[in-house]
Amino acid sequence: MKKKIAILTILICLSLSAFAPVLVHAQITIKLQSSSVQADFPSKLTFNLSAKDDVNLTDIRLRYTINRESFAQAFSEAYVAFTPAATVSVNWVLNMQKIGGLPPGATVKYWWVIKDAAGNRLETAPQQIDFNDSRHLWRNVSKGTLTLYWYQGDDAFVNQLMTAAQQGLASLEKNTGAQLVRPVRIYIYASARDLQGSMVFPAEWTGGVSFTEYGIIAIGIAPSNLDWGLRAITHELTHLVIHQMTFNPYNGLPTWLDEGLAVYNEGPPDPTFTALLNQAIADNQLTSVRSLSSPFSAYGDEATLSYAESYSVVNYLITTYGQPKMLELLNTFQQGSTYDGAFQEVYGFNMDGLYTLWKQQVIPKRASRLEPVTPSFPVRFGLALQGLMPLWGVS
Ligand SMILES: [Zn+2]
Fold it and tell me: Which of 12, 120, 161, 227 has its CA 20 to 30 A from that of 144?
């Protein structure tokens, strides 16, 4: 009997506790009057809220998430400063300089949490905004999983870029097995200057950016600079595919592999690369594969040589060991492997071993036909004018 009473008591308590929130809920008097957001690309998003209540509203917070590839389902919360009152209109500004900026077309989901002096709480339904660069009149064209946005140049211009992008995807799959996992949007700005105007922290040499976690690429390609653009779009798209293929919460790729694949997939190497690499071999100035795993130097020849070497090492791996091994390597990196661990597992040597084998491959062949390289300054200057330098500096 005692046991029955105890169970009954527990059941009553459970019933009361189940009813309790409903009773409190019925007293909620917080009313959402309006909620909106204003985009000022690329600098800020201004979130606006108006609400009223029978008692003072005492606590307002904005919660938001940015739609990108991530392993953590986290949201950010901003406390809104205001004087408690029964009717309030507040705003809160997401300053892009504080978060490093967002690419054009990034989606932000947001909602409000409002509390009053009586202890009531209202959480609004989520809304979302696409942070579009509305300073330009964009047109778009899609094929498969790719969409290109552009505002200057005719249909022939964008069709050539689309063809290059599709061919880039096909050649990447043929040589490495890597394929796009998710859709990609590519924004073609009409110049490097326009592109830099879309960023909160632009570097003056930025010509193309792959926002890998967003599936978004932004490149400055003038219709008059199409040849460069065809390589640029392939380069950045390769970065994005490789990122999607290998994304994991533990480890990225060594820089030389990431950049080497991007340059390799552009097509035949730029003659400047070949010349600089030959010179470095002749001068015994090669950089070890291990050293090339860190971010490249931002300076002239040093950076260019890093790209040239990276291309050559990737070329060696694909030519010697084939596509299946490269695909296996990318899949091993996707498991979160260390650099050396991945190479050891797939190829049977670590990065030092790779450096030794690669040197054996390139040095004897090139040493017999080395020629002095013409002055490097005009080469660098010319590259900067063509917009090549930026690509190499951005991953
Ligand atoms: Zn790159």
Answer: 227
